[in-house]
Amino acid sequence: MNVSEPMLPPVRGMVDRDGRLVEADQRLHDLNARAGGDIGQPLAVPQIAALARLAQRLGILVSRGVVAADGPDDLELWVRAEPESAATSGNVRLHITGWRSRAAWQPAAAAEERATDFLRSEGDWLWETDSALRLTFLSLSAGARYGFDAGAMLGQPLTRLFVLGEGDGGVFPILGGLALQQRFDDQVATIRATGHRVRLAATPRTDAHGAFSGFVGAAYALDDSVPPTVIPPAAPAAADAVTTAFAMRLDQALRAPLDRIIANADSIHAQSEGPLRQDYADYAADIASAGRHLMGLVDDLVDLQAIERPDFVVAKEAIDLADVARRAAGLLQVRASEAKVRIDRPSLGETLAATGEFRRALQVLVNLIGNAVRYSPTDGMVWVRAEREGTVAAVIVADQGKGIALADQARIFEKFERVDPREVGGSGLGLYIARRLARAMGGDVTVDSAPGQGARFVFTLPGR
Questions:
Q1: What's the Cα-to-Cα distance from 442 to each of 27, 125, 134, 250, 354, rounded to whole Å?
Q2: CA–CA separation, 280 vs 4, rounded Å?
Q3: Domain boundaries, position 382
Q4: DSSP string, 347-398
Q5: For residue 158, which of 186, 191, 195, 125 has the smallest C-alpha distance?
Q6: Tens digit of pLDDT for each residue in 25-43?
Q7: Pairing mode, if any, of strands 21-24 and 11-15?
């Protein structure tokens, strides 16, 4: 349907007490069929089905407008749902008018979407702002990889995350893009938290009235010490080339869509656009949780491909391992709070000089502390301690979980291994990757545990 037809007679139908469509005029029958339903099956148009359930539950006539998807268009309908006595049939009679077709909402114009798609496919990670250049979105993986708290940055000015650098002629490309509301590509910036250098590119976005509403942008790593999310191959053998290409395409194809799915689901769960039925908000939370799980799998698979290459190397940087431990604990604070677990991290004045790659050390500790939080009981405690043991710098992560049997302590560091496969979450790659990274930096990850006595993981690096 592509036009408004206000003079058509009302369309009638009936839903039984189990939500099945048992009677329908032709127009309703066709709409239901396009949604995948049929007579005698559950009503497949969610908005009408929800109204029928509401009328049945309340036992009163419910009448309101709804918008239902119909192919490429949306339909504006006025639905009256009138329940019959539960003592007789429990059916709900439907009386539908309106049937006004309109173009479905699209998030951006096609040109904007094409420009955004190029950024998503080429950038190492993504960011977005509103018209006042406040951050409204950051790739979830960016914080762990670059050493800042992505969640805490949302709502902050762009310059809270980046120190912007001058371009040719002393100009700032982002200011030119803002003034002319056009794309910019060469804004050099430094991440305040770590000093890592990136190049920013972005395309403007507009609202429904055509007014500037912010930027959709990507960041590209400029430092050798912070490789992009996907590590390009260096003259691999034929089999390695296929594996590397697959990992690159997997990462590029899945990361940006998953980021958006998670961000939108979180927004729905928070009811930031207005009140929402609690079960719908809970569904959104489930979607966000599943999205994060899939994002973790993508990260693990890309890391696995990288660390198993024969030419994999890590940077040798002077790092403060106590500071890295504090940052890792901070990144997991929200997860710990939701699980009602406390993290006791190294104090602010504590330092522990070590040699390693900042990003990889942070990745190892996020995995170890995240595991400790996951397996801790409610109201439990996770201890994170930074110590020097001779020439070795060590971070110890201890929890109050159920512990690990001696027979399993070697197995948990193997690829795709989990102590209890029935437990939800995890890919069986985290500890394998953590130990491989630690050893690549000249250190190690070890465990000391017993059933019922918690676990104690030790991450070591060469001291300075």
A1: 70, 29, 41, 30, 11
A2: 30
A3: 317-462
A4: PTT---EEEE-HHHHHHHHHHHHHHHHHHSPTT-EEEEEEEEETTEEEEEEE
A5: 191
A6: 999 999 999 888 899 999 9
A7: antiparallel
3 state DSSP class of 163? strand
| Angle made by CA atoms 312, 318, 324, in degrees to the nearest 5 | 85
**What amino acid is encoded at 383 in this protein?**
W
Sheet with 92-103: list strands edge to edge: 21-24, 11-15, 92-103, 73-83, 62-70
Average pLDDT over residues 313-327: 90
What is d(CA 230, CA 416) in angstroms, rounded to the nearest whole number?
A: 21
Q: How far apart are CA 233 and CA 119, in angstroms?
A: 21
Sequence length of the chain is: 464
For residue 172, what is the DSSP state? -
Cα 457 from Cα 361, distance rounded (Å):
14
Which whole number is the average pLDDT over 195-222?
A: 85
Instruction: Centre a 10 Å sphere on the Cβ of residue 120 and count the other Cβ atoms it contains.
Output: 19
Query: What CATH number is attached to the domain comprising 398?
Result: 3.30.565.10
**Helix intervals (H) in 99-225:** 110-122, 140-146, 150-153, 158-161, 173-180
Place of tokens 């077709």: 101
User: What tens digit of pLDDT does each residue of 50-107 get?
Assistant: 889 888 888 889 888 888 888 777 888 999 999 987 677 889 999 999 888 876 555 4
Task: Indicate if the alpha-carbon torsion angle 212, 214, 217, 221 is positive or negative.
Answer: positive
The last residue of one of the domains, among 44, 72, 103, is 103
Q: Are residues 372 and 296 in the same domain?
A: no
- Is the model's pTM score more than 0.85? no
